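Two proteins, back to back. First:
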Amino acid sequence: MSAILPSIASRELLCRHFGACGGCTLQNLTARDYRDLKRNKILDALARSGLGSAFLEDVVNVPPRSRRRATLKVLKKSGEVQIGFHALRSHAIVDMRECLVLTSGLFETTQCLRRTLAAILREGEGVDLYVFEADNGFDLDISLNRKLALDIFAEIAAFAPKLNIIRMTASSDLLYQAAAPEVRFGKARVKPPPRAFLQPTREGEAVLQSRVLETVGKARNVVDLFSGCGTFALPVAENAKVHAVDSDGSFLEAFAAAARTTSGLRPVTIERRDLFKHPLTAQELNRFDTAILDPPRAGALAQAKMLAKSDLKRIAYVSCDAASFARNAEVLADGGFRLAWIVGVDQFLWSAHIELAAAFTRE
């Protein structure tokens, strides 16, 4: 698959905060050096797992200014609000006045929040600010564990519509809501809870979904392990029965609600389960034709061992960490699985991270 952009790294494309901000450390690389660094992350992972690199495809890039969600650091100091990312190798905040990673809308919204955040925060108080650009507006959550004065609610209600902020929460407690945020997965419209795990870019999400669907193919009965709100399961459910498993009840509720209100889906079931402590057993997995595996950054070694012991023939594997992918891939290979293809999806621009999508098959 060709990249969305042939190259995104350029010595001319430098943020004013480059060198201070810890968010983007690779903007000064040439396009070739940047591409090679990302590719080598995958090659090193494949070498550690003994799988070889014959089926490695070109890395797919997402465009600059495409990241739709982020967790920003906020601090009120001397009456002014600093908002941005941590400085390189420091807990100091780089007060963000430019960003080549966030969508333009998300960046502009965060800049306009300074006055309201100054009213919310006490002097010297710092919080995390989760920001997400949904399909119908902006969703914000502040890591604040105290009650706010009533006049703050009035101020939020006054400025939010001007910025198309449709929901604002404080540690998931509702401060303001004009509408429930929505995202579309295939035919389904999902209303995710605050701080839901969602793919960081729409472009990267589309690539991952297409590769998962390619791997699932004509399977009739699919299990989605670490399903979240249904990023992959809901598009797959347009053609196959799906059993979605996750430990987060709020994610599963959003998933189930979307499935109920979407016509044309095959039967969908959900199960709340901690797959780290209680992975699906080989016997349970044998009820399905194909598995989708999209674990957190730490991977899912216990679940990978059960997949290796099962009779499954195909696994669509999505990973946001090359090292944990390598560990789990080695287990799958020892269980008889063969790597059919692997592709890097560069959703974490100008950082050392790389997303992976891979297909495992066996006779």
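And the second protein:
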Amino acid sequence: MLTNTGTTPISGWTLTWTFPGDQKISSMWTASYTQSGESVTAVNEPYNASIPAAGSVTIGFTGTFTSSDAAPTSFAVNGTACTS
């Protein structure tokens, strides 16, 4: 879930992260994505581009791995590191 903890809406979002293992995304919903090696970029769909203050968007994906499926440890939205 991508939550806007700020006080102003987000208009258009790009979520990025890097897998620490060899995961590959097979499909993603509520966002479009590109993957280059371990680096993933997910971009809003037209219907969920705006996230109001205190609002959220849920995205999901399915994927595969060969030898390591360790969870990512950091994410960024529009180039700014996320906090958990």
